[in-house]
Amino acid sequence: MTATKTHCPYCALQCGMEIGPGLTITPRTDIPANASGALCQKGWTAGELLTNGERLTSPLLHGEPVEWDVALDYVASRLSAIRSEHGPDAVAVFGGGGLTNEKAYSLGKFARVALGTSQIDYNGRFCMSSAAAASLKAFGMDRGMPFPITDLADADVVLLAGGNVAETMPPFVRHLTGPRMIVIDPRRTQTAKLAWLHLQPTPGTDLALALGMLHLAIADELVDEAYVAARTTGFDEVRTSLASWWPERVERITGVPVHQMRQAVRALAAVGKAYILTGRGAEQHSKGTDTVSAFINLALALGLPGVHGSGYGCVTGQGNGQGGREHGQKADQLPGYRKIDDPAAREHVAGVWGVPAADIPGPGRSAYELLDALGTPGGPRALMLFGSNPIISAPAAEHVAERIAALDLLVTCDFVMSETAALADVVFPVTQWAEESGTMTNLEGRVLLRRRAVAPPEGVRSDLDVIAALSERLGHHFETEPVRVFDELRRASQGGPADYSGITYERIADETGVFWPCPSTEHPGTPRPFLDSFATPDGRARFVPVQHRPPAEEIDADYPVYLSTGRVLAHYQSGAQTRRIAALVQAAPEPFVELHPDLAEQLDIAPGDVVRVSSRRGESKAVARISDAIRRDTVFMPFHWEGANRLTNPALDPTSRMPEFKICAVRVERDS
Ligand SMILES: Nc1nc2c(c(=O)[nH]1)N[C@H]1C(S)=C(S)[C@@H](COP(=O)(O)OP(=O)(O)OC[C@H]3O[C@@H](n4cnc5c(=O)[nH]c(N)nc54)[C@H](O)[C@@H]3O)O[C@H]1N2
Ligand SMILES: Nc1nc2c(c(=O)[nH]1)N[C@H]1C(S)=C(S)[C@@H](COP(=O)(O)OP(=O)(O)OC[C@H]3O[C@@H](n4cnc5c(=O)[nH]c(N)nc54)[C@H](O)[C@@H]3O)O[C@H]1N2
Ligand code: SF4
Ligand SMILES: [Mo]
To answer: Is the shortest distance between the CB of 552 and ligand 2 below 6 Å?
Structure first.
């Protein structure tokens, strides 16, 4: 076997790697995200995903291995029966931001054409949906980072609000060694330790902090008036709306001293080249969209977006977190980042799909609302799950488990027996990253080609095969070859905001990725889409006035401590993949809760004690880790194991429908 150029199975950096004989993994140096030759521990050990013994290799019907045709016939007939008894919306589809563009596209078409259901959404709702909503409002388009990652290296200052890239995307840090870094995080993380300035707010107060910083920028006359006049609208209204956010008030709310806010604003304003980036820490709140709007307002006032060498960006998370939100697995969306309620968009896509536009269902429920409705009167009775493990990763997980248990039919596609797959009536065993080809759009908006490097084990088929085989039984023809699906996707996206029509597999290979929009095969692609104008009708970026508000759940006498959640280096998401890799389990063997020494002393908790953490929604046990890197009023739990999400609050952001993963009220006790 010769070495094959492909990409990592995990996060949105999509580090380039070569897979050689014996499944050796070597970093590629031609992919800018990790041109330094870096991979993180998850990337280095990814080969084990292909060989470890826990691989599913046969379809399972009620836990028993069966032939493919038996499983496919069963699912198709059950879907038809449920649909004829309860109507098309009784069947729901849930996708994921780890799926290739081809799969995300096919899944959206499968829901709308083969099943005729409006009920499709995906785990990206839980990820960067707040940043996406805020970018759409401000810039008219959501390309998470509208610039190549290598641009960051030349900046003077980078502010990162609620991101811990040193653990979540280690090679990212190599792009940040030049600029001075300002990190906003309630914990002194590995990333915060690299920072020139670390602001350590109370969780859930970033919105106030951003308002306070903009208030200071105005008071200290640091606003780039010429940029504001030439490239934006709405600043006067925002300026007026900030009057009451004077710095001392913001200090009281956030706990961040005024002098630090001033230091941050001055650093950002003093220089020509600065970036403001947001991660999940700022975004996964019931006010995540407004929080990101406040940071974008700050960036606009300082004249950063749409200028070569400066900007605002969202650090997207999943492998195809960017592409996964563009091609129609989101409830309100059609391919090419088109809106499902836009008549012209419906006409165009219906033309590609060969169906009347009127047959494309309207928008359905968002991810959490969909899970919450399962098995309820009027809610879906069957769920088709591709690329997510909501028993672990959805908020209020016990409630979600109850809803899933109330279904008439749960079908999952996976390559391992995830906690959710274990509950399914039917599990289809599918191929994974290095066993199949497809495109992934990384956090920069660069479309990349993941190539098949090894033959899949006997007995598995691709997600595209499963979708096509079920569609065929339901009377529709779907393509199964990734390149042919991509060609159809190109046509479906043509003319939309995320226009892929000029991108081909050959071009991606020759050009080490192509940035969308790319409207023709002669077009070079668009690394920095906003340099001339923004994607709004008048070409100007829009300031959006927003106000701070408290989290959906405040601490009180019963639940006196804030819980925040997030990630550790060794594990990926729900852990379905990484909890099966020996070196990663060794690096991070068990769920833990991080708490400050003062809080631990007050609660009589010693390092290594098992503690019980409870919220209004559930209870969970974890090992105590005591660290002065966290605030006294806050504890932190990673969500890679069952437990953290039994506690979290499913309060939703009104615009993005993002749940409040990053803050809820809990009680912490030693488990006697
Ligand atoms: N190792 C690893 N890497 C990953 C993933 C993984 O599961 N594991 N997942 C990938 C995906 S899908 C994503 S979305 C990204 C996420 O990447 P990040 O956004 O970097 O990850 P998180 O750990 O969720 O959150 C980042 C930080 O937010 C902080 N935080 C918590 N509450 C608040 C708050 O109220 N305000 C502020 N400012 N900060 C707060 C946390 O302390 C945490 O350090 O990572 C990607 N990379
Ligand atoms: N408390 C808390 N909860 C969170 C978060 C948080 O910060 N705190 N973060 C949220 C975020 S940002 C995210 S992105 C979600 C992620 O959480 P999930 O949606 O659960 O994502 P994964 O764990 O990546 O689940 C992927 C599942 O699909 C399988 N899989 C991977 N690739 C494929 C494929 O190509 N095809 C198929 N069929 N299956 C595949 C994997 O084996 C695994 O079982 O969690 C969210 N939940
Ligand atoms: S940083 Fe992300 S893409 Fe790179 S090796 Fe690690 S998990 Fe893979
Ligand atoms: Mo994510």
So the answer is: no
